[in-house]
Each structure stands twice: as C-alpha cells, then as structure tokens.
Amino acid sequence: MRLMMMVAVCLGICGGLAEAQSVRIKDLVEVDGVRSNDLVGYGLVVGLNGTGDGLRNAPFTEEIMQNILERLGVNVTGEQFRPRNVAAVFVTGRLPPFGRAGSQIDVTVSAIGDAKSLLGGTLIMTPLNAADGQIYAVAQGTIIAGGVEAEGDGARVVQGVPTSGVIPAGARIEREVEFDFSELSTLRLALREPDFTTAARIENVINANVGRGVAEMMDAGTVSINLQRTATGSPARAVVAIENLPVEPERRARVVVDQRSGTIVMGEDVRISRVAVSQGNLTLRIEEAPLTVQPSPFGDGETVVVPRTQAEINEEPGISLAEIPSGTSLSEVIAGLNALGVSPRDMIDILKSIKAAGALHAEFLVM
C-alpha cells in the first residue's frame, strides 16, 4: 500500500516538474487507409495426448475430422471412431497493412469444445477468412500453449490457459488486399487522441518543414495532407518526410483510478478549486455470544439457550483538511494526504467526493 501511495505522489509531483516532451508524429497519428485486417478460421488440432474433445459433447469435431479425411481420400462414411487426441479450434490472426503473398504472420489457436489442453498439438491446414468471406491466408503448424496441466485420481491442477496457444509465423498470406497506396492524391492523418490543439500543432510543424499549405487541420482528429504540394508527390515519400517530425502533444487533465489495486495516476494539469475536506471512519461491530443454561441436578427442567449480544460503535480519528486553496495541484493534495498516512482506498474516496463537489477540474476515470 505504501508503495502505491508513493507511486501516485511521484507521478503527480515529478510530472508537474518535468518539462513537456516532444513526440514524433508517427506516435500520435494513424495514416488513413494503412490498417490491418482481422482473419478467422475453423480448424482441427491433432496429436493431443488424450486431452482432446469428447466427440459426444462436440459433434462438430467429428464432422470436420470426417471432412478432412475424405479430402485426403480416406472414406470414413458409417465408421465409428472416438479418438481423444483431436480438438476443434478457432484460429485468429491479423493481416498487416501491405502484407504480400508469401509473407508469414502469427496466429492464435483457441479450443471451442471441451478439450482440456492443446499442449503438443499440431494445427492442420486451416484457411483464414476476412470479413468479406475471402480466404487471405492458410495456417498450419505446432502450437505453443501458455499453460500447464497435471491431473491425478483425486486432484487436478491447471496453471495458465492450456486451451489456447499461438503459432509464430504459423500462417502464410495467399491473397493481398487490393489497395494502391501510390495512387492517393491526399493523405489523412487520424489522431489517436483527438485534440484541436495537437492537430493545429501537427499542421504547423508539417507546413514549416515540408511546405506551406501542405497540411490542413480538418477537425480535432484529422489533418489532411495535399500530396500535390509536396516536393515528391509520392504518398510513401510524404509519410517518410512527415512521420518523424517532433510535436508537443496537448493532453486533457485526467485522473485514472484503479479501485482493485488502489493505484492513482494523474496528469500534471489537474487542478482543484477552493474546497474543504473532512474524512473519518465509522466502524460498527456486533458479536453474538449465546449462553447455555443447564437445569439443576436431579431436577425437572430443560436446557435453555439465552441470547447475548454485544454491540459496539467505534469512530476512528480521520483527517480534516480545513481548506484547500484555489488552484492547488492534485499532486500537492496527494502529497498532503500521503503525509497524513491516508490509505489509497480512502484517498480514492476523497477524490471522488472532491469531483462530486465540482472542485476537481479533470476527467475522472474509475477502472
């Protein structure tokens, strides 16, 4: 807990003292049209050590196995087979921008039946489709699973997720996305975090270094690049000339709170208006201690249970910040709370109350 408080204070105070740093344009924007595409396929994993699907519970596994065997010339119509070393899986991957036929990409394999583990399994040739239904890659290879499983007669231990794994460079691209980047006459830079000030700074930096009138801010999230006004006119050359230019991004004042771990992260521009804070803890404790009363020896009577309840209310000494001056930074408030020994949980509650009172001037995000 003490470490979490020190992290929160350091992030606030040290961030306020440090000067704003410039960031490359390539780290702030995405080039419109230069994007990846998601791929998905349905396949079969073989070679499992008895940890595959139970075919009664996963009939689709038997169906795909029959289809694969029939494509290989093996007739299994009407045959009864119940292997435990196969599992039906979903295979997912991502086709990178400008991915060319013959290139290889990583894929993730995940069991969809009741298989216990994919350790040691091999994915059989699986086509991967995009959203348009076309096949863009084919995956096959040995699975590297990220978990361990051990089982005995009376106990079973599982660490990680053995029903999911990856195949590095496990798929080969068979079809390219039809997109001619070189034919573009205008580029659009999409800001990852839209902001009017940051977009204006990107526009000014590009016009000052590449050419006047090359860049134009369209809105808070878009900067348009006129390729006809650049020296080369080539979209690729224009991106090379632009993406490494330094820009100082403008960030919104923001406070991020993780209630599970008690972590508080804040920006340097967070400010607090004049406000008074008082916080204390009230504890209610109730204990039941029933008393059993026995009858006299050799006498007529019954054993009686007499209820006995002890109730207690304790009010622990809290904190009282009589007044926080207007314009105080949140890092200074956190430093004061930390000096008073306030726990991260109580600190989060105080920040919530200050925000509810309208005195915390920042975006407040609770995770």
TrEMBL record:
<keyword id="KW-0966">Cell projection</keyword>
<keyword id="KW-0969">Cilium</keyword>
<keyword id="KW-0574">Periplasm</keyword>
<dbReference type="GO" id="GO:0005198">
    <property type="term" value="F:structural molecule activity"/>
</dbReference>
<keyword id="KW-0732">Signal</keyword>
<feature type="signal peptide">
    <location>
        <begin position="1"/>
        <end position="20"/>
    </location>
</feature>
<dbReference type="GO" id="GO:0071973">
    <property type="term" value="P:bacterial-type flagellum-dependent cell motility"/>
</dbReference>
<dbReference type="InterPro" id="IPR001782">
    <property type="entry name" value="Flag_FlgI"/>
</dbReference>
<keyword id="KW-0282">Flagellum</keyword>
<dbReference type="Pfam" id="PF02119">
    <property type="entry name" value="FlgI"/>
</dbReference>
<comment type="similarity">
    <text>Belongs to the FlgI family.</text>
</comment>
<keyword id="KW-0975">Bacterial flagellum</keyword>
<comment type="function">
    <text>Assembles around the rod to form the L-ring and probably protects the motor/basal body from shearing forces during rotation.</text>
</comment>
<dbReference type="GO" id="GO:0030288">
    <property type="term" value="C:outer membrane-bounded periplasmic space"/>
</dbReference>
<protein>
    <recommendedName>
        <fullName>Flagellar P-ring protein</fullName>
    </recommendedName>
</protein>
<dbReference type="GO" id="GO:0009428">
    <property type="term" value="C:bacterial-type flagellum basal body, distal rod, P ring"/>
</dbReference>
<comment type="subunit">
    <text>The basal body constitutes a major portion of the flagellar organelle and consists of four rings (L,P,S, and M) mounted on a central rod.</text>
</comment>
